[in-house]
Write a structure and sequence with these properties.
globular, 122 residues, 5-stranded mixed beta sheet
Length: 122
């Protein structure tokens, strides 16, 4: 399985998990000229920007560590862009979550969900 397939499978697993815990998926792989949001979900009126990181091993660090401060700022800029074009009812809030997935075997993985993993100062 190549990196693109690994990332896609991780995002599929993350989206399924979010739906199981009651969130509604608004968008997947939403793009603009500056990048991509992996998953945008709605959690009872709160818009949740979810960064998904999937790893086969932790040799290069954990999946969580890959969400650097620079990556957090990029996600916040993308979130502003997404919200500006979203339409519909105004969200009651915005939250930035991280889902870290560590593949254990071909058909098994460990999923860790970090709610409100980071905040971005305006």
């Amino acid at each position: 399985m190549d990196r693109t397939e690994l990332a896609r499978r991780g995002e599929d697993a993350a989206a399924a998990y979010l739906e199981r815990i009651g969130m509604t998926i608004e968008a997947r792989n939403w793009r603009d000229s500056s990048g991509e949001l992996d998953i945008v979900a709605n959690d009872d009126g709160v818009i949740v920007m979810v960064e998904v990181k999937t790893r086969r091993s932790e040799r290069a660090g954990t999946a969580e560590e890959a969400v650097s401060t620079a990556k957090q700022r990029r996600i916040a800029r993308l979130a502003s862009s997404y919200l500006a074009g979203r339409g519909g009812s105004a969200p009651t809030g915005i939250r930035f979550d991280v889902i870290a997935i560590r593949v254990i075997a071909q058909d098994r993985a460990l999923l860790r969900h970090y709610r409100a993993a980071f905040q971005v100062d305006s």
